[in-house]
Design a protein that fits this description.
Blueprint: H1 3-16, H2 21-33, H3 43-57, H4 61-86, H5 102-113, H6 115-121, H7 127-137, H8 142-176
């Protein structure tokens, strides 16, 4: 199954079964933020599509936004915890073992930028899950990590859903005026 087919089928399912939107978005955001699963799950395209679907169909924004934020926060928290417990052994766990450049890249970002790097890492593809992993490996204080994790999870959920949800409405209103 291609990314396009998976995205289309998921969005069609959400459109037909709106009650499933919240749990689906929660799982997708969690998987997108979890160190191992993020390398296998093409959730970004689907979540951007859900934002557009919200804008077109009028599905409630806030429950879906909350699910995206909570899923992202939980995924990063679990990645941090795994890094804290497994340390550098995590590099030998599949699928990270197939991407040997991710942890060193995440480590460089974390070493250079610290908490700001953890925040910014949320917004850059595979780094999204490797930076929290490195924060755990480097034993970043848990309270500091969670503050950055929650703030970046909220910002990320907004950034991935709001453009489709509100941008379409704004554009339609602007064109009608």
């Amino acid at each position: 199954m291609t990314l396009h087919e998976l995205t289309t089928q998921t969005l069609d399912f959400v459109r037909e079964h709106e009650a499933w939107a919240v749990p689906i978005v929660l799982v997708l955001a969690f998987g997108e933020s979890l160190a191992f699963l993020s390398l296998l799950l093409p959730a970004t395209a689907i979540l951007l599509g859900v934002g557009v679907l919200i804008g077109k169909s009028g599905i409630a924004f806030w429950p879906i936004w909350s699910a995206a934020a909570v899923g992202a926060i939980l995924g990063d928290w679990l990645s941090y915890w795994v890094g804290l417990k497994l340390k550098h052994r995590v590099a030998h766990v599949w699928p990270l073992s197939r991407h040997p450049d991710l942890l060193p890249r995440g480590h460089r970002i974390f070493e250079r930028w610290g908490a700001a790097g953890v925040f910014a890492g949320r917004f850059f593809g595979p780094l999204r899950a490797s930076v929290p992993l490195v924060a755990g490996i480097c034993e970043m204080p848990a309270f500091t990590f969670q503050l950055v994790n929650v703030a970046s999870g909220i910002a990320w959920a907004t950034g991935i859903l709001a453009p489709g949800a509100f941008g379409l409405r704004w554009l339609e209103g602007w064109m009608a005026a």
